[in-house]
Amino acid sequence: MIRLLSVSIIALAIIGAYYFNRIELSFFGLQRLATSQMSTSLQPIGSSISYSCGTQNVQPHFLSYDPVLVYIESFLSPYEAQHLKELALSHYSSSTITASKENHKNEDVDGDIRRSETAWLPSPDPVVDCVRQRAANFQGLSSNKSMEALAAVRYNTGQEYKAHFDWNPFTKRPSDRRTSFFAILDANCTGGATHFPKVKSIAWGSDKRWCDWLDCSRPLEEGIFVRPIVGNALFWVNFKEDGTGHPATLHAGMPVVEGTKIGLNMWTYGKTSRK
To answer: For the chain, how long is the longest CA-to-CA vector?
Structure first.
């Protein structure tokens, strides 16, 4: 009951901010509401790995109310980040972009826009299944069935993903990627921030504690630059209440100056009320 209440409080806070754009919270938004105990009942399936899904004490903080953009500390445990990084090793191929105006299925490699490698992580796997359910719980969903497979993405020196949307701006189909998570599995690099160029203000002002996570050397007029930190994640809602894609969810994976960054994409797919 305590676990469900904790998850429900977070879900209600996110929904409230999404629809009303005004929630009286303490500094860093959700921090007062919960150090969330995102526990699931998943058990390892078909695996000899000794791993218990258990409880992960995630700490969510609002970066923005419009669009809903939440920074999450400790979304992944060190063991989970390492396991997912190793699991991805044999599955990488060149990353693609959507090449069709109708759906996400027709894809192409375009090195001018996106230079990286993507690994779709296999399931069943105890850690993959646990993390997918944790992402579903965070949104107040009882099941992870609407979530796509987890996708690790690896950026080496000089690689980047220029500004793009996770939702498809070309189609009028009623289903799309409603929400996005982006967690960090490896940050042995310089550069590689996640840039939201149209988010030009931060919830709760310019308190310097944000600089633990953001590149505060960049002026807010350029948007926010979120530094890669292993285990931490971003969550955002891709659509407005009226079902149209939110233009301020435009984001980019900035070039890795040196080293390697590995992220983890988690998308929830569903109806958007788009007309």
So the answer is: 50
Give me the number of domains the chain comprises: 1
| Cis status of the peptide bond prior to 67, with omega within 30 of 0 | yes
Is residue 171 within 8 A of residue 106, CB to CB? The reply is no
How many beta carbons lie within 10 A of that of residue 263, not counting itself? 25
Structural domain for 31, as ranges: 2-271
Which secondary structure element, helix H or strand E, spans residue 164, and what is its range?
strand 161-164
User: For residue range 1-44, what is the model confidence (pLDDT) as tens digits?
Assistant: 434 334 444 554 454 444 333 333 333 334 333 334 444 444 44
Q: pLDDT per residue over 243-267, tens digit each?
A: 889 999 999 999 999 999 999 999 9
Question: Which pTM was predicted?
Answer: 0.82
CATH number at residue 257: 2.60.120.620
CA 10 – CA 249 distance, rounded (Å): 21
